[in-house]
Amino acid sequence: MIFYFSATGNSKYVAERIAEATDDRLISLRDAIRSRSYRYDVGREERVGFVAPVYFCGLPSILQFFLEKLELRGYEDQYVYVVLTCGKVTGDAASQLGKQLKRRGILLSAQFGIPMVDNYVPAFRMPGREEADEVLDRAEEYIDEARRAIRAKGIGDYNRCQGAVPGILTAGHILYAHGRSTKPFVVTDQCISCGLCQEICPCGAIALSGGRPQWRKPQCVQCMGCLHRCPAEAIRWKRAGEDRGRYVNPRVDL
Ligand SMILES: Cc1cc2nc3c(=O)[nH]c(=O)nc-3n(C[C@H](O)[C@H](O)[C@H](O)COP(=O)(O)O)c2cc1C
What we know:
By secondary structure, the protein is of the alpha/beta class. The chain has two domains: 2-175, Rossmann fold (3-Layer(aba) Sandwich), CATH 3.40.50; 180-237, Alpha-Beta Plaits, CATH 3.30.70.20. The protein is built from nine helices and twelve strands. It has helices at 10-22, 29-34, 61-69, 93-103, 129-151, 166-171, 173-178, 196-200, 225-229; strands at 2-4, 26-28, 39-41, 48-53, 71-73, 80-86, 110-115, 156-157, 185-187, 206-209, 212-215, 235-237. Strands 2-1-4-6-7-8 form a six-stranded parallel β-sheet, with helices on both faces. A two-stranded parallel ribbon has the order 3-5. Helix 1 (10-22) runs parallel beside helix 5. The longest helix has 23 residues, at 129-151. The site of flavin mononucleotide has 26 residues, from helix 1 and strand 6. The site of flavin mononucleotide (FMN) has 26 residues, from helix 1 and strand 6.
């Protein structure tokens, strides 16, 4: 089984490509949390995968939340792996996951990093279609390597995106843990009141009020899904002075 979280499609694309190679079932973290499904049976030979984006060189809060609750029935040292999608560097995010799993008596067997398009719009301009395709084409080599290793249940550190000082980079994750403010999100008059932002928000932070999205929680996952996927491009990040564009992985259905 493959547990995945994805806001703009990179991690979903990777999860689907791995599932094709291993014939595994896909489980969306957002759906699992919505239906409060935390208990899963693991077959004797089954692989257990986690595929998610890296946030501030650490794990998205939604994955940390899920891991706290996860119960793998029938777990007896099966093959467990993590695939982290990122813009460039994952830091030591996999160790964060490894430690969290260890507290639940689960051992992480392998880690992988896939460099894809960086969707962190507060810091970066989003690429156009051609530029995005170039980045995604380059990622295929990393995805193929992960598929081969996971199929063979290869054990070890396959992550080529950890950066020079992964531990120090991941120390910066504290900014995420204490940040994640919803205050910088703003809505322009382009809003068409479709409600998609409310529907896709993985932590229920958005509710429509008078036809407009309102952030009713002080913090969110900060996945940027609402901003990137708004069909009217009406959601913006206030502090990013200019409009830096949108990104959704064109190779997957969300
Ligand atoms: C809040 C936030 C923080 C991020 N931090 C990092 C980071 O530390 N390193 C990195 O390489 N990419 C970072 N990214 C980029 C994402 O990890 C990357 O675009 C990922 O593939 C998005 O996955 P998704 O399309 O499945 O949502 C960050 C993105 C967001 C939204």
